[in-house]
Amino acid sequence: MVNISVADRRGVAVVDTGATHSIASPLLHRILVNAGVRFTETRRFVRLADGTQGWRNLLSAETEVKLVGRRVRCQFLVLPGRNVRTLLGVDFLTRAGMVIDVARRTWSFSDRPERRYNFVYTLGSSNSVDASLLHTASADDPAMRPREGKFTPARRRTPSACIVDRSPRAARDVPVSKGAAPVAARRRNKVV
């Protein structure tokens, strides 16, 4: 997470390199509407981290996000009816010029790589409204969606029907690379 300011309100947002677009939480959406930001309706194909996908009606608006004193224009999408956290996606990271150093757990701007910033791991504001402004939970205690983590041990041990049905065909359809020994020869020469 990183500290940001939107519509003169401070909070934190999740940096999500797996998200192509930035997402506003329901609370951030309300704050932006109250600040006079106009949202437009749009229809897009959406694929969420929980695996659900399909065409959805979304709201979209562009606003300014302050990040360590820099002002960056950001297009936020809103998923009506979904309780999501505010995410800064690759669209924002690219516009801001953010460079993430996973090994050091820091980030910097591409035009000032010598100046490194730490990620935020807790909600630091004493004001509970501001603390939860852009994020609904601590990164140390991520909330799962209702269906996540619900497979029984027996279900986890059983391969999905799709894999069982298609694996023989997939293995048969893979072309043999040039110079490779036939499958039977490779098995015969295998060292045990």
Outline of the structure:
The chain is of the alpha+beta class and 192 residues long.
- How large is the share of residues in beta strands? 25-35%
At the first level of CATH, what is the class of the domain at 2-131? Mainly Beta
**SSE order in H/E notation?**
EEEHEEEEHEEEHHHH
Choose one word for the global shape. Answer: globular
pLDDT averaged over residues: 78
Largest β-sheet summary:
7 strands, mixed
According to CATH, the fold-level topology of the domain at 2-131 is Cathepsin D, subunit A, domain 1
What is the tally of helical segments? 6
Round the Cα radius of gyration to an integer and report it: 23 Å
CATH homologous superfamily label of the domain at 2-131 = Acid Proteases
Class computed from helices, strands and strand pairing:
alpha+beta
How many distinct beta strands? 10
Spatial gap, N to C terminus: 48 Å
**In the CATH classification, which architecture of the domain at 2-131 applies?**
Beta Barrel
Helical residues, percent: 10-25%
| Unreliable residue stretches | 126-132, 134-145, 185-192
Region (Disordered): 168-192
Protein name: SFRICE_036816
Describe it.
This protein has helices at 26-34, 90-96, 128-131, 153-157, 161-173, 183-188, and strands at 2-6, 9-15, 22-23, 40-47, 53-67, 70-78, 87-88, 98-101, 106-109, 112-118. It is an alpha+beta fold and 192 residues long. It has a domain at 2-131: Cathepsin D, subunit A, domain 1, CATH 2.40.70.10. Strands 1, 2, 3, 4, 5, 6 and 7 form a seven-stranded mixed β-sheet that branches. Pfam families: gag-asp_proteas. It comes from Spodoptera frugiperda (Fall armyworm). This is SFRICE_036816.
